[in-house]
Amino acid sequence: MPAADTKSNHRGAGAAYYLSEQQRARIKLLSRSWVWRLELPTWVLIGVIYTGWFACVIYWQQLGTVLGSILLILFTAWYTSLQHELIHGHPTRWRRVNQLLGTLPLAVWYPYGLYRDSHIQHHKDEDLTHPEKDPESYYYTAKQWQNFPQLFKGIVRISNTFSGRLILGPALDIIATNRSAIRAFITGDRPAIAMWLVHFGLLGLLFYWMAGYGISAIFYILVISYPALSLTKVRSFFEHRAAENSAARSTLNEAAWPWRLLFLNLNYHLVHHDLPALPWYGLRRIYLESWVQYQHRSEQFVVNGYTEWFEAFVFTALAIEIHPFYDSENKARAEERLHTVIDRGDGHTESV
């Protein structure tokens, strides 16, 4: 891991930010334990998720439609959390091996490679929430917003409520993903086309196999896959906010253990962005060891569980439309201001 960055938050995707040299040494010590070196928790997780998912299909008739559907939704959502862990270099140091472990299209809608490339770009923290640079941003530039028809603006506002995000959020993601697939085939992007062809081939085999146990492709897409993606939207609902200090853009959600397990501790999202190579089973430990510093560093972007979001925003929209300090017409000034904000390492910021 790189040395502690005590001056700036503006670092490359995948680079670590340590609160102190002591924290760096602590993480290095933990990484030497045999459990961490062998990545045993992640290997157990892989076994449980794959065994559980395939068992639900094989014993579909015995489980019944209701129980079988609930279990498959949970395992499919859990699988997307596993894919995220694989993207960040776990459980092996070999990228192709990790990719092999996450390539099966259990979530249906996107290839692993597409998710990987997009998410790595998202980890460039100086661009977090940037409408044109962060692929996971929910913000728009002023020019983009002005050009949207009123109907789409209304859809965006609905999707910025907690209930709307669960209902409409997956559909908006699916539309964007399908557009990228169409664009790849139109432009002749061979690597992307190969990725999509592999994805479609595996998906066809998976649907054919499931049909033998009484689960049709349409049923799986509508009743399992879509709700599973909706479940992932619980975690990402207000995961990032626009803030001039990049450390204050990622939330710290002190969720209950079932959510932490389902989302593999990504509720401690600032810790994950600071230390993207830290395995899922280390996130909570590192957060609890330095929770005062992390809450200060996040500028109190702290949530007391997902119920807090539900109660505040079930029918009330987040104010996420035009990015508050970025737009295409004033790009130079906004970019300059972003890059003059520096974190001193103690939770405060200063300008240079």
From TrEMBL:
- Presence of keyword Heme: no
Residues passing through the membrane, by range: 34-53, 59-79
UniProt cross-references to Pfam families, sorted A to Z = FA_desaturase (PF00487)
Q: Which UniProt keywords apply?
A: Membrane, Transmembrane, Transmembrane helix
Q: Could you tell me the superkingdom of the organism this chain comes from?
A: Bacteria
Residues in Fatty acid desaturase domain copies? 66-288
Q: What is this protein called?
A: Fatty acid desaturase
What species does this protein belong to?
Yersinia proxima
